[in-house]
Amino acid sequence: GGRFVMSADKRQLEQYYAFLAGHIDEVRRMQHDILHHLRVMSGYAQAGDYDRLKEYLDALVEQMPDMDGLYYCGDHAANILLKYYGEQARNGGIRFNCDAQIPPDLPCTPVDLCTVLGNAMQNAVEACQRQGRGAGRYISLLARLVGHNLIMEIRNSYDGRVKWDGDRLVTLKEENGHGLGLDSIRHVAERYHGYCAVSHTDDEFTVKVVLALEWKEATPC
């Protein structure tokens, strides 16, 4: 598959936008229908018919879409991307733990942020898929804004196969020239005067990225 943002192929983009469009339509339907449900429940409450109110609420909850993983962080673009890969992971039986405290209005472009997150998450999902099912597969993402530094750490299980290119650790997939994902992450990190560090144990692969962000001082009134 292609790399997200920097060199994503047409099929991957079509899948991503179909996923996004589906969730937009789902939210619109919920917004359209909620007023009708509120009117019915208000009528039961006013009539004191709490048994039917409870039955209606129970039925409504059963029909609600799965809201797990619909909100990961305050940044809109990053949240959409994490929803996409979170759903890919869950559909593939991969445990996805996400603690992403990424606020909105960061002084970096959404393209740069999503280049880092998209490529890191795609690499992690693909590494877990190569393990096969039943191998205790997982992805863990931690993101924090510490001072002016945005720190992101993505850990995932993998099959233990890596390769060294001089002093540079690459994934086995890069042997065939597909190392654009990590290269794109490194490129963004360097432009933001940060760094990308890759490490591994026998069963866990870790990518840590730091972006040094600069906020413009507010103009005095």
What do you see in this structure?
The protein has 221 residues and is α+β, with helices and mostly antiparallel strands. The chain has a 5-stranded mixed sheet, with helices on one face. A two-stranded antiparallel sheet has the order 4-5. A hairpin with a 2-residue loop joins strand 2 and strand 3. Helix 1 runs antiparallel to helix 2, helix 3 runs parallel beside helix 4 and helix 4 runs antiparallel to helix 5. It is elongated, with a radius of gyration of 21 Å. The termini are far apart.
Notable features of this structure?
disordered N terminus, 5-stranded mixed sheet, 221 residues, 21% strand
The whole-angstrom Rg is 21 Å
- Main β-sheet, in a few words? 5 strands, mixed
Helix/strand structural class = alpha+beta
Question: So how many helices?
Answer: 5
Query: Which word captures the global form?
Result: elongated
Total count of strands: 7
